[in-house]
Amino acid sequence: MTKDGARGLPALGAALLLALGLLTPQAQAHAAENPTVKAPQAAKSAPRSIPAPKSPDTPEDARPLAAEQRARAAAPTAGSSVGAVPAARQPAAACDVSAFAGTSGAALVQQVKAAGLDCVNSLFQLTGNDAKGAFDEAQMTTVANALRDTSAAYPGDNSTSAGQLVLFLRAGYYVQWNHADAVGPYGDGLRTAVRGALDAFFAAPRTRDVTDANGATLAEAVTLIDSARENARYTGVVKRLLNDYTGSWPAAMTSAVANTETVIERGFDLPEFVSALQADPTFATTVSSFVTRNSALMNGGDLVTRIGIQLGNLVASDALRAQGRPLVKDLINRYPLVGSTGPLTMNLLWFTEKKDAGNCSFYGTCDVPAKLVPLVLTVDHTCNADLRIRAQEMTAQQLADTCTSLIEQDAFFHPIVKDNGPVKDDHNTSLEVVVFDDYYNYSLYAWEMYGIAVDNGGMYEEGDPAKAGNQARFIAHEASWLRPQFQIWNLNHEYTHYLDGRYDMYGDFEAGMTTPTVWWVEGLAEYVSYGHRGAHYDAAVTQAGKGTYALSTLFDTTYDNADSTRVYNWGYLAVRYMLQSHPQDVSALLAQYRVGDWNGARTLLKTTIGTRYDADFAGWLKACAADNCGSLPTDQAPLCTAADTRQYDRNCRRDGVAATTGNYAYSFLYLPAGVHQLTITTGGGTGNADLYYNGGAWATTGSYLAKSTNGGNGETLTVADPPSGWVYFSLYGQQGFDGVTVTTTYN
Questions:
Q1: Per-domain residue ranges of the chain
Q2: In what order do the strands lie in the sheet with 7-9?
Q3: What is the pLDDT of residues 271-285, one digit of tens each?
Q4: CATH homologous superfamily for 7-37+377-512?
Q5: What is the pLDDT of residue 3?
Q6: Helix spans in 208-293 (H)
Q7: What is the pLDDT of residues 322-344, one digit of tens each?
Q8: Is the pLDDT confidence value at 544 over 80?
Q9: Cβ distance 59 to 158 under 8 Å?
């Protein structure tokens, strides 16, 4: 359960997929916290987290996820799933969809029966006048009556074209749902006709044939139950199929059973279906018995699991909860939480916690979060006193490489932010990295183990850093789509959040968000991640060429007013520019962040700096777009100590150098005999300052021995074997400049 004020950070945007040094991972989202064993009758509170997108490369998985991840479809099921003739076996000219809109009565029935199943299947795509002509209520009623008549002698296969009639009706319901304005309303006349058709079909003795020939049409007829919203009327058909099914049934018959999942799941949206189940408790016990009788077939993505999960909807219904509780309790406690039965038990567990909250003692599930940790995370590895990895499955080499990457990143981080140790009251002395085997397992288990939202690529939770014993945790998953390369999605980005929270940001995440700090929080994480890995940030360089944002605008970025491009790509650009061009401003900003003076930091950004750097930032973006983004200054020389602000020495710098357009900032230093090389560098600030050197006399644009006249303020002059004594250099205001740092070194 999340503590109040826990730091929860949204995950890195989906596009940022780059390899990590030594094949060490990268992960993709953040917001986690400390697991606690639930007390009986106490529901878990949702952790404070900000969802972020998954990688677009995250593969789809056939296995079901927790109910909060699945949106129940509103429209009838589209297209045929079973029994269609492969297109290669049917001449293209055999299907003229306009013919269905131009006929009616017996001619329409003949047209439907004569068409191939693939041709009828294409009718799901009809729109406009064609949809109206084919599927208005009169046409649908005609075909429903034809199915009724054909079903009287249904032979157990499609020799009488019952399959085409069923599929036509399915297509009509689908098109009318999506294009009711074109097709028109359906009323009681059609409902009566469809009920007659389905009654006759399911009453036909040969619909019980356990053959693929029967199953092809039967599977479509089961789906038609839901398309016509007759779920309540045919609960007996569903029970019959579930009671009769065995794992030896052929594929098409198995599909007919699988299609009952839609009838059941969507039936719970219909009051009459709920009433039918209230009146017939054997429906629920039939579903439960179907699961226990066929449990050997469960592999996570099977029909037994999917149909068994529907028992959770009983718990979600006030009217059916009493029926559902003992059945769900039995299944949760009967089958393991991990392995092939995990998808069933974890989904049913979700229903008990989200739809029947506060009753974990009844279900016997109060200790499940703590129980799951050792069951799921079988790897427990300590990198050092500060880093621990809990994983579902990692090799010794993968663990070693991950530890190495994070330890080296720690060393990379501190020279950038120039901290003096942890901020006051921060007790997050260690980080636990949790690694699930893939996105599916993360989604299946992490919501329960750590009380987090899982529709993202991972979560980082700082917790309450002022609380002794608090455990910061990053909950991640392997980027399975990159295998055989091993990578934890966004690992280095997330580790930067831990370091930044510990060494730069006072208090918890919520405190740091009282003013807009997202540009720094996410931009630094990107900067350190890419810099540490030596990776080229293609997406950010591309954005630099667009010049979308002013620097002063980026200082206002929040998670609510920005998309992932602004948060991550532009956060990176803003932080990189500030670190390279205005390190003294970054130092002043971090001094405010480290004591929790959020308003003081905001004043520095929006008033002291304001729009002063916008023009220079725009110029820097153009250079960056050409792949000349510059580099972070090496460790800065100390400030010069001479009282005369124009005087420099062997290894010192002066900040805040300025001059107006057309004027100079004059400087000088004394060189002892034997100097082999003098280097003068300038950078940062606003405007455009050119650098001139003139040996033993004042340097001007008309009197100099060397010059550096790049655009902006990034200038360097290296003078070999300069004369001893006083030498002179100056910055000329090609455009008025301010805030420039000038450094002199010699050897």
A1: 7-37+377-512, 83-230, 532-625, 647-746
A2: 7-9, 459-463, 472-477, 431-436, 387-391, 379-384
A3: 999 999 999 999 999
A4: Collagenase ColT, N-terminal domain (3.40.30.160)
A5: 32
A6: 212-227, 235-244, 251-258, 260-267, 271-279, 282-293
A7: 999 999 999 999 999 999 999 99
A8: yes
A9: no
